[in-house]
Amino acid sequence: MAYAPQPPVAAAPSIFQSLTSSLRVAEPPTLGAPVAIRIFKEEKQLELWTERDGRYSLYKSFPICQMSGGLGPKQKEADYQSPEGFYAVSASQLQPNSNYFKAFNIGYPNAVDRQNGRSGGLIMVHGNCVSIGCFAMTDKGIAEIYSFVEAAIRHGQKDVPVEIYPFRMTSYNISMHSFSSPWGGFWRELQVGYDMFNQTGRPARAMACNGHYRFGSEASAGCTPVAGWNVRVAAQY
Predict the structure, then answer these.
(1) What pLDDT sits at residue 9?
(2) Could you confirm whether 126 is annotated as catalytic?
(3) Which among 134, 177, 212, 223 is annotated as catalytic?
(4) pTM for the complete prediction?
(5) Per residue in 63-118, pLDDT tens?
(6) Known active-site residue 223
(7) Could you say which of 126, 129, 155, 209 is catalytic?
(8) Which domains does the chain possess?
(9) 212: closest CA among 222, 200, 202?
(10) Which H or E element spans position 216?
(11) CA distance 50 to 52
């Protein structure tokens, strides 16, 4: 699926008429402006961020209706676990006619996953309220999320960042959860990208370096961009 880039346009008022009670910004964002997604597994929340004047601001937080697995990254096919890390959605990953109303593939496994031997695929954000490793948002939720993602790509955004975290990445939360989990070191890697987003107002550019996430000056010449790396995309899901 290819789109010719078009300039963003103001969203039609009808799109927002039923949403005014839950808006998280003072005025509607431009439909077609760049967007980013952050997912928090423990809180069961998906955040949709939109760009204005070079910075991203939170447009809306959506409840995740259903997901499977616990905290920690996905390890293998059919482990019923949702992934954690830094992913991206391009035009070829959009599923406008999904069996779950609408869907998009997040791009698992990325380069870090593959460097660690993690298997599986076809991890989606989709409609309905049934999940086996995916993030089910209800049909109403995915309709709104999908419209922003598709419009951003249609208007020239190469791919939409999707950052998936186990929980809000504070040092306190990481320390508390690390007592009962082997993933403390991995979560501290994710925290670097989380903090960069919060500080700069822009998604961090994650790199895969020998099975680890690195950002900015941490990344060496031999590192690989994590997103858009041999993603398996279903023709229909």
Answers:
(1) 55
(2) yes
(3) 134
(4) 0.87
(5) 999 999 999 999 999 999 999 999 999 999 999 999 999 999 999 999 999 999 99
(6) no
(7) 126
(8) 13-225 (2.40.440.10)
(9) 222
(10) none
(11) 7
